[in-house]
# Entry
Amino acid sequence: MRKYILPEGEIPKRWLNIVPLLPEPLEPPLDPETKEPISPEKLSVIFPEPLIEQEVSDKEWIDIPEEVLNILSLWRPTPLHRAKNLEEYLQTPAKIFYKNESVSPPGSHKPNTAVAQAYYNKISGVRRLTTETGAGQWGSALSFATQFFDIECRVYMVRVSYEQKPYRRILMETWKGEVIPSPSPNTNAGRQFYEKDPNHPGSLGIAISEAIEEAATREDTKYSLGSVLNHVLLHQTVIGLEAKRQMEEAGFYPDVVIGAVGGGSNFAGLSFPFMADKLRGDKPNLKVLAVEPSACPTLTKGEYRYDFGDTVGLTPLIKMYTLGHDFVPPPIHAGGLRYHGDAPLVCKLYDLGYIDAVAYKQTEVFEAALTFARTEGIVPAPESSHAIKAAIDEALRCKETGEEKVILFNLSGHGYFDLSAYDKYLRGELEDS
# Structure
């Protein structure tokens, strides 16, 4: 079989929280003023209470509300594909599978948490949400989700992506999202960069600062984050929970699980349900591989320490691998991976040796993307193409050794709004960042 599809009734009914399975406690976020663990009261300025409860929860399983399940059922469960054409092209004995999150209405994995966050904000009486977006996938997802709950949505989009990806902006506006290029003159955080350079390329860190500042200064507004935080990774575990059932149907368990990492949500969403088996000791030899861009090599070259999640310093201090909160990555086309830090949960597992990491240059990632598009037919997002590159490398190693490994990666989104980047690559104009 090439495709494994679960019936609608088998959408997971609970999210998996990996926190209680960790071999040692996760370091808490700190109040930047006191350097003590931040209080729920301070977090409530930007997040609604139900999401704060999930952020600090030690329960292994958390029920998914029916209202959320009803909207997720518009596209979930998503298919699991066997990449047989790619296997044949590579002439590898490996078996390659991918979870296809590109089938959601916004075209990525992001609405898995956007719908949940919109729901919890709605029942908490929130009327407006602010957020940031890099490539536009998260902004698209939150604009999509908030329209179901009659919540206004303002998106600060990293300027370089705002200019590179106009159709993402149009998609957000179609779903009633208001899109602001960042840095902007709208906020104190944005003005300090905008006034020095109106054409500043921006970064996720700056856009986060703008969105948080606005949420913190308006009583009717909260902030919504598309990656990094525990509750976001929690919501994404529907990906891996479905994939585990589908791999059972296919008759295999993966030897290698791969995902691209910017903040960590699509990577964690696929890998954490399998990681749970590794943490319990059931699958000690499972390889879990995080893939990042060489232009923003957080895990592979960053420092593991407390740092701000944004550029200006409005967030709590978070223990993570970081390149420094003032780091502005080159304007690569994988905008969703241009983040100076990573999810604390992902960083903790990497620090403890449960996760491996690799970084690739932009040109080699697009070479892998073309190979995938020309064998499997789907044009992948630049972010997802990092995982594809790693999967191809793993499969080629199997070709050399003769090992019949089972490789699973997350196709976190399609690249149909990224064709300008493909055009640059095809014309030989893409920077080798």
In short: The two ends are 38 Å apart (CA to CA). The chain has a mean pLDDT of 95.
